[in-house]
Automatic annotation (TrEMBL):
The keyword Membrane applies. It comes from Dermatophagoides farinae. The chain crosses the membrane at residues 33-51, 78-98, 215-236, 243-261, 322-342, 349-369, 429-451. It comes from the Eukaryota. This is Uncharacterized protein. Keywords: Membrane, Transmembrane, Transmembrane helix.
Length: 456
């Protein structure tokens, strides 16, 4: 996937889901692995030169070693360590995405979210005449609102309105309204048949996801694919390209699935809260009716289903991958900051380092924040279980009452429904605060080591 840059996220997941196990797939990712191993060995050899240049005068025989040695004020031993760690991220990325069987639930969820959902979106496009009709109605509504507001303004400010060039301004306003209508039409999904998209062209693993939620995922994938297309032309160095690709895959796939989990859990919590409010408004009968009981059964099943998705994918794939990604990424980030603080770099190199640090922090931090938010969404339902329990009668709703008692007990005292960083920590907001404190400890340790090496 190194040189497949157009629609990178979509094509990468489609490639994994459709071609896993084929001879072409194996050859392609063997080549990826060979490139990583070659880069890793070559960087280790260059590192030997920095350890003892008299014993390993590699700059006499190798052009890459010569370049590093001539620019050793910038490309010093710590920069080589950063390059080695980046190559190790390449190994983690290849193992996580391209050597995980496509029938694993973690890959199936990513495929359903990024590939299948996007394909169903394009299949649900409405007829051109229907789209034109929707846009025309929307344009007329916006234009009428503007005319009404303009007449109201005209009555109060007649002197100023006489000075304005009415014809010129009305043409500009029409164009501005048209642009606004076009943008709103895309955001409101006027170009697709909502009923077909939501009821016929459903997702496989998230059949109850709302049309708005699914459209947000499609829009996110389109924007990210455009950004990664631009990013590939910026990160022209092989190792930076590797870092960018696997960081983009990790961050973007996690944030795409976050949209589905977050929207789905918010919808469940909203329905739960609505049942409680409806019962509070009733004066005479404060008890769950049959329709509300079915809603509670649906909420319970969906919550369990989404919890199963998260816990199983964490155990299968994400726990180990996030662990290795964290262990490798923290030294990269801290060492880049040390290079920026202590080395005498040119303005261009400083700007390059600052850009790399910002991109690295964003692609590393955002996935963990989104995963912590999903964990918070899973546990928010416990705030509604206690007010709902008195509404369930022991004689009529005993089974449902016991189910929600067990769910409340699991959420309060059981294992957290959250992704984990190996055995280090659970990815919750509390866990991220603790990890931030550990980051500072690692930061000062590496700075101490860096300063000690600089004095030698």
């Amino acid at each position: 996937m190194l040189f497949r840059v157009k629609n990178f996220i979509y094509n990468a997941m489609k490639h994994i889901g459709d071609e896993y196990g084929s001879s072409h797939y194996r050859r392609l990712h063997r080549m990826d692995m060979i490139l990583c191993i070659y880069s890793f060995i070559r960087l280790l050899i260059i590192g030997l030169m920095y350890m003892d240049v008299d014993r390993f005068p590699l700059y006499k025989y190798d052009y890459a070693s010569l370049y590093c040695w001539e620019n050793r004020k910038i490309v010093n031993k710590f920069f080589i360590i950063i390059q080695i760690l980046i190559t190790m991220i390449g190994f983690v990325g290849i193992k996580t995405f391209f050597y995980t069987p496509s029938n694993r639930l973690s890959i199936q969820i990513l495929y359903d979210c990024i590939v299948y959902n996007t394909d169903q979106y394009y299949k649900s496009f409405d007829k051109p005449e229907n789209i034109a009709t929707k846009m025309s109605i929307r344009f007329d509504n916006h234009y009428c609102q503007h005319i009404h507001h303009h007449h109201h303004h005209h009555r109060h400010h007649q002197c100023s309105s006489m000075v304005m060039k009415k014809l010129f301004i009305s043409i500009i306003i029409k164009y501005l309204i048209y642009i606004k209508v076009w943008l709103k039409s895309w955001l409101e999904m006027d170009h697709i048949d909502r009923e077909m998209f939501e009821k016929i062209n459903k997702m496989k693993l998230f059949p109850y996801a709302t049309a708005k939620c699914r459209y947000n995922v499609v829009l996110f994938v389109m924007i990210i694919d455009f950004c990664t297309f631009i990013g590939h032309f910026i990160a022209i160095i092989h190792n930076l390209l590797q870092l960018y690709q696997y960081a983009a895959l990790l961050s973007c796939t996690i944030m795409a699935t976050y949209q589905l989990f977050h929207c789905g859990l918010n919808e469940l919590n909203r329905k739960f809260y609505k049942i409680i409010l409806d019962n509070k408004k009733r004066q005479k009968q404060k008890s769950i009716n049959q329709n509300e009981l079915q809603q509670l059964q649906f909420i319970y099943r969906q919550h369990n289903r989404l919890s199963y998705y998260e816990l199983l994918t964490n155990k299968q794939t994400w726990s180990h991958s996030l662990y290795y990604f964290t262990i490798i990424s923290l030294p990269i980030n801290i060492t880049f900051i040390c290079e920026l603080i202590f080395e005498d770099l040119s303005i261009q190199i400083q700007l390059l380092f600052i850009s790399i640090i910002i991109i690295h922090m964003l692609t590393g931090l955002l996935p963990f924040l989104t995963l912590a938010h999903v964990s918070n969404d899973f546990h928010r339902i416990r705030n509604y279980i206690l007010p709902m329990q008195p509404l369930l009668k022991c004689g009529q709703h005993l089974r449902m009452k016991i189910k929600y008692d067990c769910l409340y007990e699991r959420l309060m005292f059981g294992k957290k429904i959250a992704y984990t960083i190996g055995h280090l920590a659970e990815i919750t907001f509390t866990g991220l605060v603790e990890a931030f404190l550990h980051y500072f400890v690692a930061f000062f340790l590496i700075i101490g080591f860096y300063m000690k090496e600089q004095k030698l």
